[in-house]
Design goal:
alpha+beta
Length: 231
């Protein structure tokens, strides 16, 4: 039987597929993107520290949220407030010309039932790996998971770790909306204002020491003791 090659039908299918690939914050769909949200309490004091995840081709968020546990479509700390879209054709170095998502809510496999060399295939492999990892905020966390995915995708030639990934998100992340920006920033402004008002120099010294220790830990663990921070 001859395959259907009706141009109008093909155009409708392509149009339908492109619509499913659009970023849709209301449905928490960010196709082929990195997403970020503030952490309760921690982000109130250090606003550039947060929780991150990476999204499948259909926009569903995956994030490493606990021991042997990768959340699927349930971002652990609320809705994403920042995101970075990734061009898999231009920014990834492995062949990702195929797509595992067929635009109708299903995933396809090759004829032999083998794995496809796709964006989702890379994410699936990292997910399987981290489903057997112990979670630790200081040595194996959500940044480790996303960095592992990006290295597997050879995003911008690879070489990702928790430090350069955090910096990349800080300077390149887009706010989902004004409300999302306020949700991320206002708690820090309030806490910092109250801390300076009632604690003065003591609060500033405490804040500086804690921030420096956290940053120093990840820098040393990433660049000096390379087996300390897992990827």
């Amino acid at each position: 039987m001859e395959p259907d090659s009706d141009p109008e039908k093909l155009e409708m299918m392509e149009g339908s597929f492109s619509q499913t690939m659009q970023i849709d914050p209301k449905r928490a769909r960010y196709p082929c993107s990195i997403v970020w949200s503030p952490l309760p309490v921690i982000s109130w004091f250090i606003p550039f520290i947060g929780h991150i995840g990476i999204c499948r081709e259909d926009g569903v968020i995956l994030d490493f949220a606990g021991p042997n546990f990768v959340c699927v479509d349930n971002f652990a700390f609320g809705a994403a407030t920042r995101y970075i879209p990734v061009s898999k054709e231009k920014q990834c170095c492995i062949p990702l010309s195929q797509t595992a998502f067929n635009g109708e809510g299903r995933y396809i496999q090759d004829e032999n039932g083998g794995e496809l060399r796709t964006w989702d295939d890379a994410l699936r492999k990292s997910t399987q790996e981290f489903q057997h990892r112990a979670y630790n905020l200081f040595t194996c966390n959500c940044h480790s998971f996303v960095a592992n995915n990006l290295n597997r995708l050879a995003f911008l030639s690879g070489g990702w770790n928790v430090v350069n990934l955090a910096i990349f998100i800080l300077f390149n992340g887009r706010w989902v909306s004004t409300a999302s920006m306020l949700r991320s920033i206002i708690p820090f402004v309030v806490v910092f204002f109250l801390g300076v008002t009632f604690g003065g120099f003591t609060f500033l010294k405490f804040w500086f020491i804690v921030t420096s220790v956290l940053i120093g830990w990840f820098i040393l663990g990433t660049y000096c003791f390379k087996n300390l921070i897992q990827l």
